[in-house]
Amino acid sequence: MKKVSIVSLLMMLLIPMTAHADWAHVVHPGESYYSIASQYGVNTHQLQSMNNDWSSYLSVGERVQVPVTLNSYEKDLLARLVEAEAKGESYAGKVAVATVVLNRVESNIFPDTLYNVVYDGRQFSPVLNGTINQPAGAESKQAVEEALDYQGYDNGSLYFYNPDKAESAYLASREVTVVIGNEINVK
């Protein structure tokens, strides 16, 4: 029994679970897109794009959607998922996979942390077959960085699949957002 308690404690310490309410910032007096972007370490243009707002005026109490930010553990986890899930895909395909995962973190129909999205049931085969535990290559790590920078500029993809490898009537019925090589991203 003691070992279980120690293991549980270690897992809580080793696996950071960043709590994200809904990736929104409530505007306070005197704040601008620039000041909010600076606070979160993101580009002002990216923040405005995410909110589809090109004005410079914000109202006190307004909710501004902010990009997902990841700590080093979460970046590594996402890079390992990308490496395993998009093996054999182009660099653009790897960015697209990372983008889908980040969109899921922001979506209210999926869990609100990266860890919980990645380990949500049977969503990703690398989690099920253990290949997510293999280290990520430089290209997958760079794809994660690009996906983080790309937030707000994509088409809101929440799923990806390769119709040559998997059939899904559900995914085939969804709105296509982008096609990259053999991979189709959908909303």
UniProtKB/TrEMBL annotation:
Keywords carried by this UniProt record: Signal
Domain of life the protein comes from: Bacteria
CDD domains cross-referenced by the UniProt entry: LysM
GO terms of molecular function: hydrolase activity
SUPFAM superfamilies, per database record: LysM domain (SSF54106)
Keyword rRNA-binding: no
Signal recorded as keyword: yes
InterPro entries: Cell_wall_hydrolase_SleB, LysM, LysM_dom_sf, SleB_dom1
Family annotation (Pfam families): Hydrolase_2, LysM
Residue stretches making up the LysM domain: 23-66
Signal peptide (UniProt feature, chain positions): 1-21
Protein name: N-acetylmuramoyl-L-alanine amidase
Biological source species: Salimicrobium flavidum
Organism lineage: Bacteria, Bacillati, Bacillota, Bacilli, Bacillales
